[in-house]
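Re: the 388-residue chain
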Amino acid sequence: MSSQMAKTGIVFLLAFITGVNFVVFPALGTAFTDPSVFGLSSLQFGNLFLPQVACIIISCLAAPFLVNKSGPKIVLATGIALMLTATAGLWGMQFLMKEKEMLFPVLMVLVACAGSGFGLSITTLNPLAASLFKSNPSSAILILQFLVGLGTSASPLMMNLAGDVRHWMYVPGIIVVAVSILFTVFLFIRLPAETLFKLPERFSVPRRLWAFFGIIVLYGCIEGTFGSFGTVILKSRGLDNAGASLGLSLFWGGIAVNRLLFGIFMRKYELSLLFLLSPVAVGLIIGLLLFFSGAGAILSLMFAAGFFMGSLFPGAIGWGTVEFPTLSVMVSGFLMAANQIGTGVVTNVLGRFSDRTSLILQILITLAVMICALLFVLKRNSKIKEAF
């Protein structure tokens, strides 16, 4: 199958299904902690995702070298196969429910497989999307990341549709079927050898790429704070449990909407200044959260914060891809790892300060200002207008 349209459709469908597959374990949190199902303690459930973060970081950093040696199709197929194995293994655990002492170790192994598969898949998918739209790689990466985000929001919805927590096995079962079908189709497409996936024989990580790395670590800290402690922060501002959950959903929705709109309109308009000033908007919005207490205002601010954050991560990958065309796959893996490092650090550190939400918000404002300053430093003598 060599049709350009078919390749494009399959690549973007893979992005969506990768997002769905990635969050199947977090989506089953209620089943994992329910005494009548898996019966994990809160400590076990918290530790369950440590190997996932570690394996994502390792696989994102390893993927560029693997792609350079074996090509994108083999690495992407390996990543999908690892995620498929993890989800199929999760589905099969319904037959091990009587062996309670085995559940947690097996889940740890499956989560590690899912993290490794996600790192390999997403690191390869970013430059693959860019290679399909050589005239506007940043736009392609933004839309691809929008689809990944859309996928991550679909898995929790599937758990709600499953209804009773005892029907948890339908979630991984449906995902296994969907991924298997798409994976089979993917095996029949031909991906040409692209220079985007080749690394120079001798290279070192450019200093400017380290600056991108630092920006995304800071971005990961902000995203991770809202992802892990968003409901805690919103409840401290006066929202009830339902309102806090809605606020967090609006935050992720704002990110998704921004990536879609940015990806569409940057083909027609020059949006580099909007991208550069987005962290300032995020900082101002977080600052307003310190002063507003009405539910309507806070929910609107959460959507706005997500909206202005939306383009920062995929936009940085797209800009880096244009800036370092001979290191495109390295840019993807490097920045994906940076995001996970920022998220992992903040998740483990902020637990000690979860009762000091005002201080957390002040720190986030500082991080947003630092991101903006670094972006403007990178703007000098750069190719940012080609990227946006």
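The chain has 17 helices and no strands.
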